[in-house]
UniProtKB/TrEMBL annotation:
The keyword tRNA processing does not apply. Pfam families: Trypsin_2. PANTHER family: SERINE PROTEASE. Its EC number is 3.4.21.-. This is Serine protease. The keyword Hydrolase applies. Keywords: Hydrolase, Protease, Serine protease, Signal. Residues 1-41 are annotated as: Disordered. It is an enzyme of class 3 (hydrolase). GO terms for biological process: proteolysis. Belongs to the peptidase S1B family. One of its GO terms (molecular function) is serine-type peptidase activity.
């Protein structure tokens, strides 16, 4: 990846810290690892959680303040970031210390100007979480001092209100790609957060994979994240079939709200494995959408987790 005849590949990765140099149509897969958190067996292609409406580390506490969605930092109120369509079908998750919920993290994001925001991430490796590009790099803010790499992200896996069953860790190393950082193109809105301790060994990781249209179009997708329209620090889940696919996007009629940016859009395979197929990022009047894990996205996530 990189320069070809002076044109930068929009999937070319960039990071905020110096580092040493480091087939379409086929399934590519990075498998999940449950870790040491007690697992919950899925119910077929969705999670085993009461109330879902189906259609085809001690005393450390998290802050309880109500904070804005990180997407607002880049997009303001000019677009729908994440939306509820009709009745809200999301279900609250109570057993957040059990896998797979333990692998999902509430994010407290501090921007360059000191403002604070919320988002969601999910572990893909002991030291690495996947998330949305706009969770780590802010574009187009009217507050000029806010644009660019965020200063830090407090990662709180398995958070349940103010309770932190696995503690919290602060990250200040991030990856995204040129297509997002240079102009904020929604087709490249994905990123990684690198944490200094291997907490993913404990909380577990989700897999991620590339699936051809004909296979992914038949799947039910799942999303769980930390929305800003519910009690701070609570995890909410929904599941439904894929609504539409594009080369760089996956669309679904799943209910979400601001704060769930960066959540995993995942399927559950016949072996009960949770496999990410997208990174949730945007809303719309009839469907919400995420950045699809295409072959270039898969390569970058695989490189970043190494």
């Amino acid at each position: 990846m990189g320069d070809v005849a002076g044109v930068v590949d929009p999937h070319a990765p960039i990071t905020n810290v110096p580092v040493e140099e480091e087939s379409e149509g086929a399934v590519q897969l990075s498998p999940p690892v449950p870790g040491r958190a007690e697992p919950i067996e899925p119910n077929g292609v969705v999670e085993s959680i009461a109330g879902l409406r189906r259609e085809a580390a001690g005393e450390l506490l998290a802050p309880d303040a109500v904070l804005p969605d990180i997407g607002v930092a880049s997009f303001g109120g000019e677009m729908q970031m994440e939306t509820v369509h009709g009745a809200d079908d999301r279900v609250a998750v109570s057993d957040t210390a059990r896998y797979p919920w333990s692998s999902m993290a509430s994010l407290l994001i501090t921007a360059r100007d000191g403002s604070q925001w919320i988002g969601t991430g999910w572990f893909i490796a002991p030291h690495v979480l996947a998330t949305a590009g706009h969770c780590v790099y802010i574009n187009n803010s009217p507050v000029a001092a806010r644009n660019g790499w965020v200063l830090s992200i407090q990662v709180m896996p398995g958070r349940n209100r103010t309770a932190l069953p696995f503690g919290a860790v602060t990250a200040n190393r991030f990856w995204t790609v040129h297509g997002w950082a240079n102009g904020g193109d929604q087709n490249y809105d994905y990123a990684a957060i690198v944490v200094p301790t291997p907490i993913g060994d404990t909380v577990g990781t989700l897999g991620f994979g590339v699936f051809p249209d004909e296979e992914l179009a038949e799947r039910v997708v799942n999303i769980a994240g930390y929305p800003g329209d519910k009690e701070p620090g609570t995890l909410w889940y929904d599941a439904r079939a894929v609504a539409a696919l594009a080369p760089s996007k996956v669309h679904y009629d799943l209910d979400t709200a601001g704060g769930q940016s960066g959540a995993a859009v995942y399927v559950i395979d016949e072996d009960g494995r949770r496999i990410g197929v997208g990174v949730h990022a945007y809303g719309g009047p009839t469907t919400n959408s995420g950045t699809r894990i295409s072959p270039p996205v898969f390569k970058n996530l695989s490189d970043w987790k190494a």
